[in-house]
Amino acid sequence: MTKFIDSPFVEEVKKITFRLYDHGWDERNGGNVSYRILEEELANFSDINEVKRNIPIDFDGKDLSGMYFLVTATGRYFKNIIDFPERDLGLVRIADDGKSVDLMWGYNDGASPTSEFPTHLMGHQAKLKQKPSQRVVMHCHPTNLIAMTFTQKLSEREFSRILWKMQTESLVVFPEGIGIIPWMVPGTIDIGEATSAKLKDFPAVIWPQHGIFGTGSTIDEAYGLIETIEKAAQIWTIVQAQGGVIQQEITDQDLKDLAKVFGVSPRLEFLE
Ligand code: 2HA
Ligand code: ZN
User: What is the structure's pLDDT at 1?
Assistant: First the structure.
């Protein structure tokens, strides 16, 4: 029997949270990740079979009861998870009443799930309805993307078009475009509802002047999505720094040709 700390799930979250920190996208306690783990994947671990603590959550997650999530702790630093996974990560199971979680592993100095856990759960719920493979919600603070939310109109169409046109790869990675909510107070049910409503249509949602919420079936998919969006925002920033004069661009026809060859369906109302 293996200990959960040696599982590939803990390993993946340790690595990805450090990578997010290393990019400068998770200063201090910024950012949070939740990773749905299947019950059958937990069968061979010796130290996750009894409930260590029951932790109330500010959300009714009855539809998700019995599901397991590996979740970053509130207030902890992504910089440190790699060294203190058993302290700064927790494996929780949504309790039968949906209003609390059973802690099965981790949070060993008394921590609780991220303040954004209700938003993560609403996001998982919304995505699972259309994509049964959905497993990861990832929130972070990508620098160039946040900067763009100060200077650009918060129009999903305009924002998505800019990011699609900043590199050939963008449309292939997020053909649906990107959702945007208005600026809202984080850690609330309201922001969770607004974000999860957008996640029905988009794989990622921008929180203006704050960051991004990305989703995926795997850690790599959620991370790759955010990485690609932020790369496009970085290129846009550099183009502006070089004077912002576009001599040649990726045209709407180029985007359509790209979509055809790569077999993706771009959001047509975002194209001309
Ligand atoms: O977890 O990033 O949005 C800290 C945050 C809240
Ligand atoms: Zn944040």
Answer: 80
CATH class, domain 116-272, is alpha beta
Domain ranges of the chain: 1-115, 116-272
- pTM listed for this prediction: 0.97
pLDDT in tens, 143-201: 999 999 999 999 999 999 999 999 999 999 999 999 999 999 999 999 999 999 999 99
Q: Which residues surround ligand 2, an ion (CB under 5 A)?
A: 211
Cα–Cα nearest to 188, from 111, 114, 137, 119: 119
Distance CA(149)–CA(155), nearest Å, equals: 10
Instruction: Dig out the tokens for 217 from the structure.
Output: 């079936």
List 2's β-bridge partners, or say none. 45
Domain 1-115 belongs in CATH node 3.40.225.10: yes
Q: Which residues are marked as active site?
A: 116
The residue written with tokens 């029951």 in the block is: 54
Residues of the chain with pLDDT under 50: none
Q: What gap in Å lies between CA 96 and CA 144, rounded to an integer?
A: 41
Same fold, 1-115 and 116-272: yes
Q: Is the C-beta atom of 114 inside 6 A of ligand 1?
A: yes
Question: Ligand 2 centre and the CA of 31: distance in Å?
Answer: 5
Q: Atom of ligand 1 at shortest distance to CA of 114?
A: 1
Ligand 1 atom closest to the Cα of residue 115 is: 1
